Amino acid sequence: MKIRLAILISIFQITTVLGQKSVTNLLTSGHINIAGTKISIIPPQGFTKASDFLGFQQELSGSSIMFLDVPGPFSEISKGFTKENFLSQGVQVQDIENLVINGLPAIFITGEQNAYGNEYIKFVLSFGTEKETIMINGAYPKNLNETGTDIKSAMLTAYYEPDKVINPFEIVDYVINTDEYGLKFAKSMSNSLVFTADGLLPVQSEDKTTFIAAKSFSKVPISDTKLFSINRLKKMPFEIENIESTEDISIDGISGYEIIAFTVDKNTAEKGKVYQVMLFSDSLYYIMLGTTNQEYEINIEKFKKIANSFKRK
Q1: What is the pLDDT of residue 21?
Q2: Which residues neighbour 146 within 8 Å (Cβ) at sequence distance 6 or greater?
Q3: Do 2-160 and 168-312 show the same overall fold?
Q4: Which architecture does CATH list for 2-160?
Q5: Apex CA 123: angle with CA 121 and CA 125, to 5°?
Q6: Residue 267 has what DSSP assignment?
Q7: How confident is the model at residue 20 (pLDDT cuts 50, 70, 90)?
Protein backbone atom coordinates (compact mmCIF):
# COMPACT_ATOMS: atom_id res chain seq x y z
CA MET A 1 0.00 0.00 0.00
CA LYS A 2 2.85 2.42 0.89
CA ILE A 3 4.47 1.81 -2.50
CA ARG A 4 1.25 2.45 -4.39
CA LEU A 5 0.70 5.61 -2.35
CA ALA A 6 4.22 6.77 -3.21
CA ILE A 7 3.47 6.20 -6.90
CA LEU A 8 0.38 8.39 -6.62
CA ILE A 9 2.40 11.10 -4.88
CA SER A 10 5.21 10.83 -7.45
CA ILE A 11 2.94 11.44 -10.42
CA PHE A 12 2.48 15.03 -9.39
CA GLN A 13 0.52 16.06 -12.43
CA ILE A 14 -0.91 14.27 -15.45
CA THR A 15 -2.51 16.50 -18.01
CA THR A 16 -3.65 16.12 -21.59
CA VAL A 17 -2.88 18.84 -24.10
CA LEU A 18 -4.13 18.48 -27.67
CA GLY A 19 -4.53 14.74 -27.16
CA GLN A 20 -0.98 14.25 -25.82
CA LYS A 21 -0.53 13.13 -22.23
CA SER A 22 2.01 15.03 -20.16
CA VAL A 23 3.44 13.40 -17.01
CA THR A 24 5.30 15.50 -14.45
CA ASN A 25 7.02 13.54 -11.68
CA LEU A 26 8.66 14.54 -8.41
CA LEU A 27 11.63 12.63 -7.03
CA THR A 28 10.42 10.99 -3.80
CA SER A 29 11.88 8.86 -1.03
CA GLY A 30 10.14 5.90 -2.67
CA HIS A 31 12.21 6.19 -5.85
CA ILE A 32 15.11 3.77 -6.30
CA ASN A 33 17.98 4.71 -8.59
CA ILE A 34 19.12 2.08 -11.08
CA ALA A 35 22.85 1.70 -10.39
CA GLY A 36 25.02 3.15 -13.14
CA THR A 37 22.14 5.14 -14.67
CA LYS A 38 20.46 8.52 -14.30
CA ILE A 39 17.02 6.91 -13.91
CA SER A 40 14.97 6.23 -10.78
CA ILE A 41 11.52 4.68 -10.43
CA ILE A 42 9.22 3.44 -7.68
CA PRO A 43 9.16 -0.35 -8.30
CA PRO A 44 5.91 -2.29 -7.95
CA GLN A 45 5.18 -4.05 -4.70
CA GLY A 46 6.72 -7.54 -4.65
CA PHE A 47 9.46 -6.68 -7.17
CA THR A 48 13.12 -6.99 -6.19
CA LYS A 49 16.38 -5.87 -7.76
CA ALA A 50 17.25 -8.18 -10.66
CA SER A 51 20.51 -10.12 -10.48
CA ASP A 52 21.14 -10.59 -14.22
CA PHE A 53 20.02 -7.28 -15.72
CA LEU A 54 19.48 -3.62 -14.82
CA GLY A 55 16.04 -3.43 -13.31
CA PHE A 56 13.52 -5.24 -11.14
CA GLN A 57 11.88 -8.63 -11.32
CA GLN A 58 9.15 -10.73 -9.73
CA GLU A 59 10.56 -14.22 -10.06
CA LEU A 60 7.38 -16.07 -9.12
CA SER A 61 5.35 -14.57 -11.97
CA GLY A 62 8.20 -14.11 -14.45
CA SER A 63 7.51 -10.36 -14.66
CA SER A 64 10.23 -7.75 -15.08
CA ILE A 65 11.18 -4.12 -15.64
CA MET A 66 14.45 -3.64 -17.52
CA PHE A 67 16.42 -0.46 -18.18
CA LEU A 68 18.53 0.38 -21.23
CA ASP A 69 20.57 3.52 -21.89
CA VAL A 70 21.05 3.85 -25.65
CA PRO A 71 23.65 6.28 -27.06
CA GLY A 72 22.15 8.64 -29.59
CA PRO A 73 19.45 11.33 -29.82
CA PHE A 74 15.89 10.34 -29.02
CA SER A 75 14.72 12.24 -32.10
CA GLU A 76 16.60 9.77 -34.32
CA ILE A 77 16.31 6.53 -32.36
CA SER A 78 12.57 6.95 -31.87
CA LYS A 79 12.09 6.83 -35.65
CA GLY A 80 12.75 3.10 -35.38
CA PHE A 81 9.85 2.57 -32.97
CA THR A 82 7.48 1.27 -35.62
CA LYS A 83 5.10 -1.68 -35.63
CA GLU A 84 7.14 -3.27 -38.42
CA ASN A 85 10.43 -3.08 -36.53
CA PHE A 86 8.91 -4.49 -33.35
CA LEU A 87 7.24 -7.28 -35.32
CA SER A 88 10.66 -8.28 -36.68
CA GLN A 89 11.67 -8.81 -33.02
CA GLY A 90 8.61 -10.94 -32.31
CA VAL A 91 6.49 -8.21 -30.69
CA GLN A 92 2.97 -7.60 -32.00
CA VAL A 93 2.35 -3.91 -31.23
CA GLN A 94 -1.17 -3.02 -30.09
CA ASP A 95 -0.76 0.67 -29.27
CA ILE A 96 1.79 3.50 -29.66
CA GLU A 97 1.15 6.54 -27.48
CA ASN A 98 3.07 9.83 -27.62
CA LEU A 99 3.78 11.34 -24.20
CA VAL A 100 5.80 14.04 -22.50
CA ILE A 101 7.74 12.90 -19.40
CA ASN A 102 8.99 15.80 -17.27
CA GLY A 103 9.21 17.96 -20.36
CA LEU A 104 10.95 15.33 -22.52
CA PRO A 105 9.33 13.75 -25.59
CA ALA A 106 8.37 10.13 -24.93
CA ILE A 107 6.70 7.11 -26.50
CA PHE A 108 4.81 4.36 -24.67
CA ILE A 109 4.33 1.13 -26.63
CA THR A 110 2.11 -1.81 -25.70
CA GLY A 111 2.45 -5.18 -27.42
CA GLU A 112 2.34 -8.96 -27.10
CA GLN A 113 5.19 -11.42 -27.38
CA ASN A 114 5.56 -15.18 -27.17
CA ALA A 115 8.59 -16.44 -25.27
CA TYR A 116 9.43 -20.02 -24.26
CA GLY A 117 5.88 -21.12 -25.03
CA ASN A 118 4.21 -18.40 -22.92
CA GLU A 119 2.34 -15.25 -23.91
CA TYR A 120 3.54 -11.95 -22.44
CA ILE A 121 2.38 -8.36 -22.55
CA LYS A 122 5.28 -6.02 -23.23
CA PHE A 123 5.51 -2.33 -22.39
CA VAL A 124 8.24 -0.05 -23.78
CA LEU A 125 8.61 3.47 -22.41
CA SER A 126 11.27 5.50 -24.20
CA PHE A 127 12.29 9.12 -23.84
CA GLY A 128 15.46 11.15 -24.00
CA THR A 129 17.51 14.10 -25.16
CA GLU A 130 19.76 14.86 -28.10
CA LYS A 131 22.57 13.04 -26.27
CA GLU A 132 20.97 9.83 -25.04
CA THR A 133 17.83 7.73 -25.16
CA ILE A 134 16.33 5.89 -22.21
CA MET A 135 14.32 2.69 -22.71
CA ILE A 136 12.34 1.01 -19.95
CA ASN A 137 10.94 -2.41 -20.87
CA GLY A 138 8.18 -4.02 -18.82
CA ALA A 139 6.95 -7.58 -19.34
CA TYR A 140 4.43 -9.84 -17.59
CA PRO A 141 2.35 -12.98 -18.34
CA LYS A 142 -0.74 -12.05 -20.33
CA ASN A 143 -3.18 -13.35 -17.71
CA LEU A 144 -1.82 -11.18 -14.85
CA ASN A 145 -3.72 -7.95 -15.50
CA GLU A 146 -3.20 -6.48 -12.02
CA THR A 147 0.54 -7.04 -12.26
CA GLY A 148 0.51 -5.30 -15.63
CA THR A 149 -1.30 -2.30 -14.15
CA ASP A 150 1.30 -2.07 -11.39
CA ILE A 151 4.19 -2.31 -13.88
CA LYS A 152 2.80 0.42 -16.11
CA SER A 153 2.19 2.72 -13.13
CA ALA A 154 5.73 2.12 -11.89
CA MET A 155 7.26 2.82 -15.31
CA LEU A 156 5.44 6.16 -15.43
CA THR A 157 7.12 7.23 -12.18
CA ALA A 158 10.43 7.42 -14.09
CA TYR A 159 12.59 10.34 -12.99
CA TYR A 160 15.60 11.31 -15.13
CA GLU A 161 18.51 13.32 -13.70
CA PRO A 162 20.54 14.52 -16.71
CA ASP A 163 23.36 15.96 -14.57
CA LYS A 164 23.69 13.00 -12.21
CA VAL A 165 27.28 11.76 -11.93
CA ILE A 166 27.35 7.99 -12.36
CA ASN A 167 29.90 5.20 -12.19
CA PRO A 168 29.30 3.22 -15.41
CA PHE A 169 31.28 0.23 -14.12
CA GLU A 170 28.72 -0.35 -11.35
CA ILE A 171 26.32 -1.94 -13.80
CA VAL A 172 28.39 -5.04 -14.53
CA ASP A 173 29.56 -7.98 -12.41
CA TYR A 174 32.93 -8.30 -14.15
CA VAL A 175 36.11 -6.34 -14.84
CA ILE A 176 38.35 -6.20 -17.91
CA ASN A 177 41.58 -4.33 -18.56
CA THR A 178 41.90 -2.21 -21.70
CA ASP A 179 44.25 0.46 -20.30
CA GLU A 180 47.40 -1.03 -21.81
CA TYR A 181 45.98 -1.57 -25.28
CA GLY A 182 45.04 1.86 -26.61
CA LEU A 183 41.28 1.57 -26.17
CA LYS A 184 39.28 4.13 -24.20
CA PHE A 185 36.01 3.69 -22.34
CA ALA A 186 33.16 5.08 -24.48
CA LYS A 187 29.80 3.94 -23.09
CA SER A 188 27.99 1.60 -20.75
CA MET A 189 24.70 0.09 -21.86
CA SER A 190 22.77 -2.18 -19.51
CA ASN A 191 25.05 -5.22 -18.93
CA SER A 192 27.69 -4.07 -21.42
CA LEU A 193 30.80 -1.89 -21.63
CA VAL A 194 32.03 -0.35 -24.89
CA PHE A 195 35.64 0.72 -25.57
CA THR A 196 36.79 2.47 -28.75
CA ALA A 197 39.97 3.90 -30.24
CA ASP A 198 38.88 7.51 -29.62
CA GLY A 199 36.60 7.02 -26.60
CA LEU A 200 33.54 8.07 -28.61
CA LEU A 201 30.41 6.24 -29.70
CA PRO A 202 29.81 6.31 -32.58
CA VAL A 203 33.52 6.34 -33.40
CA GLN A 204 34.73 9.54 -35.08
CA SER A 205 38.32 8.55 -35.96
CA GLU A 206 39.49 6.57 -38.99
CA ASP A 207 40.53 3.80 -36.62
CA LYS A 208 37.23 1.99 -35.96
CA THR A 209 38.73 -0.52 -33.52
CA THR A 210 36.12 -1.35 -30.87
CA PHE A 211 35.84 -3.82 -27.98
CA ILE A 212 32.54 -4.68 -26.32
CA ALA A 213 31.99 -6.85 -23.25
CA ALA A 214 28.49 -7.87 -22.18
CA LYS A 215 26.48 -10.34 -20.13
CA SER A 216 23.19 -11.92 -21.22
CA PHE A 217 20.03 -10.42 -19.70
CA SER A 218 18.43 -13.70 -18.69
CA LYS A 219 18.98 -17.43 -18.64
CA VAL A 220 18.82 -19.02 -22.06
CA PRO A 221 18.53 -22.80 -22.68
CA ILE A 222 21.50 -23.65 -24.92
CA SER A 223 22.01 -27.23 -26.07
CA ASP A 224 24.99 -26.63 -28.38
CA THR A 225 27.22 -23.80 -27.12
CA LYS A 226 29.58 -23.98 -30.10
CA LEU A 227 26.76 -23.61 -32.63
CA PHE A 228 25.22 -20.87 -30.48
CA SER A 229 28.52 -18.96 -30.56
CA ILE A 230 28.76 -19.19 -34.34
CA ASN A 231 25.14 -18.16 -34.86
CA ARG A 232 25.56 -15.27 -32.41
CA LEU A 233 28.44 -13.95 -34.50
CA LYS A 234 26.38 -14.22 -37.68
CA LYS A 235 23.70 -11.96 -36.13
CA MET A 236 26.13 -9.06 -35.80
CA PRO A 237 25.61 -5.98 -38.06
CA PHE A 238 28.25 -7.10 -40.56
CA GLU A 239 28.68 -9.90 -43.04
CA ILE A 240 30.97 -12.79 -42.15
CA GLU A 241 33.24 -13.25 -45.15
CA ASN A 242 35.21 -16.15 -43.73
CA ILE A 243 35.64 -17.80 -40.31
CA GLU A 244 39.37 -18.19 -39.77
CA SER A 245 39.27 -20.24 -36.55
CA THR A 246 37.01 -21.57 -33.82
CA GLU A 247 38.75 -22.73 -30.65
CA ASP A 248 37.83 -23.93 -27.15
CA ILE A 249 38.75 -21.40 -24.48
CA SER A 250 38.55 -21.07 -20.69
CA ILE A 251 38.77 -17.74 -18.82
CA ASP A 252 38.20 -17.15 -15.11
CA GLY A 253 37.10 -20.76 -14.77
CA ILE A 254 34.37 -20.47 -17.42
CA SER A 255 34.58 -22.42 -20.67
CA GLY A 256 33.45 -21.29 -24.08
CA TYR A 257 34.61 -20.57 -27.63
CA GLU A 258 36.92 -18.11 -29.34
CA ILE A 259 36.12 -17.24 -32.96
CA ILE A 260 38.19 -15.14 -35.37
CA ALA A 261 36.67 -14.10 -38.69
CA PHE A 262 36.98 -11.69 -41.61
CA THR A 263 34.08 -9.28 -42.07
CA VAL A 264 32.51 -6.86 -44.56
CA ASP A 265 30.50 -3.84 -43.42
CA LYS A 266 26.93 -4.13 -44.76
CA ASN A 267 26.65 -0.41 -45.43
CA THR A 268 30.11 0.70 -46.53
CA ALA A 269 31.55 -2.61 -47.81
CA GLU A 270 34.65 -1.86 -45.72
CA LYS A 271 36.60 -5.00 -44.81
CA GLY A 272 37.57 -5.82 -41.26
CA LYS A 273 38.31 -8.55 -38.78
CA VAL A 274 36.42 -9.67 -35.69
CA TYR A 275 37.37 -11.51 -32.52
CA GLN A 276 34.58 -13.05 -30.45
CA VAL A 277 34.68 -14.92 -27.15
CA MET A 278 31.60 -16.44 -25.55
CA LEU A 279 31.75 -17.92 -22.05
CA PHE A 280 28.86 -20.02 -20.72
CA SER A 281 27.88 -20.31 -17.05
CA ASP A 282 24.59 -21.51 -15.48
CA SER A 283 22.47 -20.88 -18.61
CA LEU A 284 23.91 -17.35 -18.78
CA TYR A 285 26.70 -16.21 -21.03
CA TYR A 286 29.31 -13.50 -21.34
CA ILE A 287 30.31 -12.21 -24.74
CA MET A 288 33.38 -10.18 -25.71
CA LEU A 289 33.61 -8.79 -29.20
CA GLY A 290 36.53 -6.96 -30.76
CA THR A 291 36.25 -5.46 -34.25
CA THR A 292 38.90 -3.63 -36.27
CA ASN A 293 39.38 -2.19 -39.73
CA GLN A 294 43.18 -1.99 -39.63
CA GLU A 295 46.34 -3.70 -38.37
CA TYR A 296 44.41 -6.95 -38.09
CA GLU A 297 46.99 -9.18 -36.44
CA ILE A 298 48.15 -6.55 -33.93
CA ASN A 299 44.60 -5.77 -32.87
CA ILE A 300 43.52 -9.41 -32.69
CA GLU A 301 46.41 -10.01 -30.24
CA LYS A 302 45.22 -7.01 -28.21
CA PHE A 303 41.69 -8.43 -28.16
CA LYS A 304 43.00 -11.76 -26.90
CA LYS A 305 44.85 -10.09 -24.04
CA ILE A 306 41.84 -7.97 -23.10
CA ALA A 307 39.54 -11.01 -23.16
CA ASN A 308 41.92 -12.98 -20.97
CA SER A 309 41.91 -10.16 -18.40
CA PHE A 310 38.16 -10.82 -17.84
CA LYS A 311 37.34 -11.60 -14.23
CA ARG A 312 34.06 -11.77 -12.36
CA LYS A 313 33.72 -9.50 -9.33
Answers
A1: 86
A2: none
A3: yes
A4: 3-Layer(aba) Sandwich (3.40)
A5: 180
A6: T
A7: low
CA distance 284 to 216: 6
Q: Is the dihedral of CA 65, 67, 73, 76 positive or negative?
A: negative
DSSP-derived letter for residue 183 is -
Does the domain at residues 168-312 carry the CATH identifier 3.40.1000.10? Answer: yes
Give the residue from 274, 251, 277 showing the smallest Cα distance to 261: 274
- Specify whether the CB–CB gap between 120 and 140 falls below 8 A: yes
Of 292, 283, 224, 294, give the one whose Cα is nearest residue 254: 283
Q: Are 171 and 183 in contact (CB under 8 A)?
A: no
**In angstroms, how far is CA 242 from the centroid of its own chain?**
28
* CA atoms of 262 and 134, how far apart (whole Å): 33
Q: State pLDDT tens for residues 27-36.
A: 999 999 988 8
The pTM score is 0.71
Encoded amino acid at 25, one letter: N
Phi/psi-derived region of residue 252, left when phi > 0, alpha when psi is between -120 and 50, beta in every other case: left
Q: Where do the domains of the chain lie?
A: 2-160, 168-312
Distance CA(202)–CA(160), nearest Å, equals 23
